[in-house]
Every structure is written in C-alpha cells, then in structure tokens.
Write a structure and sequence with these properties.
The chain is α+β, with helices and mostly antiparallel strands. Helix 1 crosses helix 3 (about 80-95). It contains six helices and ten strands, in the order E-E-H-H-E-E-H-H-E-E-H-E-E-H-E-E. Helices cover about 30% and strands about 25% of the residues. It starts with a strand and ends with a strand. The strands form three sheets. It has a four-stranded antiparallel beta sheet.
C-alpha cells in the first residue's frame, strides 16, 4: 500500500521515492569510494525520521542477472542510512561466496535494497501447519537451531516457489541438514521486506 504526500509516493516502509533513490545512489557511491572511484559531489541526504530509524536491511548486487553479493542485517540494530552503507561494502567485498567486486563489474552491476520489518516468531503446530502459514513472496524466513541461523529474503521465492524446497534450501544454507525445518526445536521467524532497485 502506498500513500501520497505532496505528490510523492510513500511506501509501506515509510520511505519517499526520493529517499529510495538516494539510498540506492548512496550504496553505489559508497562502493565506488572503496574502489577509489571519484563519484563526484555527494547530494545532500534527505532528512526524515524513517531514514534515521533502526531497521534491518540488506544490500543485494546482481551482475548480468546473476547474484554477485548479498549481505544484510536482520535485526534493527543500526539506523537505516548507516546500515545501507555498511551492507553495501559487505555485499560488494565481504560476501564469502564471491571474490571482491571490481570496478569493471560495478559498472555493469545492479544494486537492490531491502528494508525489513521486525522479525516475529511464527507459531505453528506441525509441518503441515507451517507450510500453510508461510506466505510465498510475502514472508522472509529465518530458521534457527542451536547456534545455526539462516535467512532468505522474500525475493528468493522467485527462484524457489515450492515451500518445502524453499525451506530445504534454507536449512542447507544454514548448515543444518535439509530437513531441519521439520524439527520442532528449530525456531521459525518471519518478516516482510520492501525492496527496490536501480532497475525499478
């Protein structure tokens, strides 16, 4: 749902269109600066309560349609504007699945930002009830067991639309064995995310 204030769209996350554009530009210029690329004069940051709220967020980098880096913070521990800067650097240079991004790749890359709601424990009784309560393309999911933890953003449903397959891959991502979601000791938490990218 979007509201309209002074001709600008305000999204579910509370961000104005101009603020989304600023955050995407800031993510790119933060990476450029780390690579030693002069990105020109920085625009003055929009100031709003939403930009300074503590929010979970992820920065995702795609290159030619393929994932090239994705790092984020699930819990709302830092102001959104700071979290975007930090996760832009982490996604570009510290995702253990990929080598550090270089300047040539950045020129062809697309950046996407996800702003998360606060995760909530999903109460359910048995695997059938869990499968019924999870909402594909709406819920981001966190699985926790002992010290293992992993999450998939709602966008991952596009690649894994079957709920059981989605959960199995999430278990494997967290090093918990593909059937961990069937274990009643595994905690399931869900959140929603608004995501926007340079291609939007």
């Amino acid at each position: 749902m979007h509201n309209n204030i002074n001709g600008q769209q305000i999204s579910e996350s509370g961000l104005l269109d101009e603020e989304k554009k600023y955050l995407l530009k800031m993510a790119r210029t933060t990476i450029q600066s780390k690579l030693g690329i002069d990105s020109g004069n920085e625009d003055l940051a929009p100031t709003s309560k939403t930009m300074l709220e503590k929010r979970g967020c992820f920065v995702t980098i795609h290159l030619h349609g393929n994932l090239r880096g994705c790092i984020g913070t699930i819990e709302p521990v830092t102001p959104l504007i700071d979290g975007i800067r930090e996760n832009a650097i982490n996604a570009a240079f510290k995702d253990p699945r990929f080598p550090p991004l270089n300047a040539e790749e950045l020129a062809d890359a697309d950046i996407e930002i996800s702003v998360l709601t606060i995760p909530e424990v999903l109460e359910y009784s048995g695997t059938d009830d869990l499968l019924e309560k999870l909402e594909p393309k709406i819920h981001g999911v966190i699985l926790s067991s002992d010290w293992h933890r992993s999450t998939f953003l709602p966008q991952v449903w596009d690649q894994l639309p079957d709920t059981e397959t989605f959960l199995e891959h999430l278990c494997v991502k967290g090093g918990m064995g593909q059937d961990c979601w069937k274990n009643e000791e595994t905690q399931v938490m869900v959140y929603k995310a608004e995501y926007f990218g340079e291609k939007d």
